């Protein structure tokens, strides 16, 4: 049986959604969320198509970014589609369908955060061990890491399907209705561990990268713009932006999620929790903008893709091969 506290939570949320203060929340959930999903699908399809079309972008340092874009594309597809299909089939009230849809939503979110952790480790190796980078980071190991990220994400998402059903509320699409043991062991604590890892590596990489940028600036007269140090510096800057934006989205979500477990009946906490979900969802559509505005190589390919003149082609022709 579901405990009495959980039984009152859907009513509290329902009352909030249809109150005067909940009008903005309704607008976010019913209008902005689907728009974000469409943008995420378009942005990541365009990103993957660009990487697939131009072989110069298919480098080892971009493998995790390509995989992250695929995960984000899946995120955009699964956040709305399972619910819509279930409603069209008339089975949206089924507990099993609800749990399956929940798993489809949770899996890409976990895969995304695991990929961000892997990218942080990869950039840390590139910065701290540049001479050993190509020895440590091999295509085989990258494939293993990507597979492990996806497999672990699927494991975390499918655990609720094997959990004793009578411990879940019928409304299963929110952490409010998960058993607290599951919520802490398989959501809160693992997510905190990955975020701490990313944050620690982020600041360490930031310190080292700043020192290297100064050294590159000093030797700029002899180090051309297409040199390996310059490219690693640009790749690290892209990583810093991607992980920085992700931390800005994930940390508030984790905090709100923890508060939801501690004080689930508080309307303010429920409100903030759903707003942070929207923020978290938007993160999957941000990487395309980061690549376009901060990665000159990717930006040139985007311009070529849309036929924005011959200047880009001339730049590519005159650039030195790696």
Automatic annotation (TrEMBL):
- CDD domains membership: 7tm_classA_rhodopsin-like
According to the entry, every stretch annotated as the G-protein coupled receptors family 1 profile domain falls at 43-291
The way it spans or sits in the membrane comes to: Multi-pass membrane protein
* Key words of the record: Cell membrane, G-protein coupled receptor, Membrane, Receptor, Transducer, Transmembrane, Transmembrane helix
Q: Which InterPro entries match?
A: GPCR_Rhodpsn, GPCR_Rhodpsn_7TM, TAAR
UniProt xrefs under SUPFAM superfamilies: Family A G protein-coupled receptor-like
Alphabetical list of PROSITE patterns matching this protein: G_PROTEIN_RECEP_F1_1, G_PROTEIN_RECEP_F1_2
Q: Which GO terms describe its cellular component?
A: plasma membrane
Q: Where are the bilayer-spanning segments? A: 28-51, 63-82, 94-121, 142-163, 183-205, 238-263, 269-293
Q: Which domain of life is it from?
A: Eukaryota
Question: Which molecular-function annotations from GO does this UniProt entry contain?
Answer: G protein-coupled receptor activity
State where the protein is found: Cell membrane
Q: Name one Pfam family in it.
A: 7tm_1
Keyword field contains Cell membrane = yes
Family membership: Belongs to the G-protein coupled receptor 1 family.
Could you identify this protein by its name? G-protein coupled receptors family 1 profile domain-containing protein
- Species, as recorded: Paralvinella palmiformis
């Amino acid at each position: 049986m579901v405990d009495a506290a959980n039984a009152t939570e859907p009513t509290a949320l329902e009352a909030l959604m249809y109150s005067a203060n909940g009008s903005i929340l309704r607008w976010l959930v019913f209008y902005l969320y689907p728009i974000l999903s469409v943008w995420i699908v378009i942005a990541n399809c365009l990103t993957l198509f660009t990487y697939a079309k131009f072989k110069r972008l298919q480098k080892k340092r971009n493998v995790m970014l390509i995989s992250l874009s695929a995960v984000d594309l899946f995120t955009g597809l699964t956040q709305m589609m399972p619910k819509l299909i279930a409603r069209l089939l008339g089975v949206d009230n089924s507990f099993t369908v609800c749990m399956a849809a929940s798993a489809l939503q949770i899996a890409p979110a976990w895969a995304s955060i695991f990929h961000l952790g892997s990218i942080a480790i990869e950039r840390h190796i590139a910065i701290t061990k540049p001479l050993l980078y190509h020895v440590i980071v091999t295509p085989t190991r990258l494939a293993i890491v990507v597979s492990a990220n996806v497999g672990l994400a699927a494991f975390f998402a499918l655990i609720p399907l094997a959990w004793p059903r009578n411990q879940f509320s019928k409304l299963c699409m929110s952490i409010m209705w998960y058993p607290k043991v599951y919520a802490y062991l398989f959501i809160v604590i693992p997510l905190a561990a990955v975020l701490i890892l990313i944050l620690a590596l982020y600041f360490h990489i930031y310190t080292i990268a700043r020192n290297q940028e100064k050294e590159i600036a000093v030797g700029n007269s002899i180090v051309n713009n297409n040199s390996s140090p310059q490219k690693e510096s640009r790749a690290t800057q892209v990583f810093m932006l991607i992980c920085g934006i992700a931390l800005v989205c994930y940390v508030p979500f984790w905090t709100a999620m923890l508060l939801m477990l501690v004080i689930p009946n508080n309307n303010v906490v429920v409100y903030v929790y759903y707003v942070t979900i929207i923020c978290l969802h938007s993160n999957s559509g941000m990487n395309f903008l980061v690549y376009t505005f901060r990665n000159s190589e990717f930006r040139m390919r985007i311009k070529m893709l849309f036929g924005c003149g011959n200047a880009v082609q001339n730049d590519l022709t005159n650039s030195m091969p790696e």
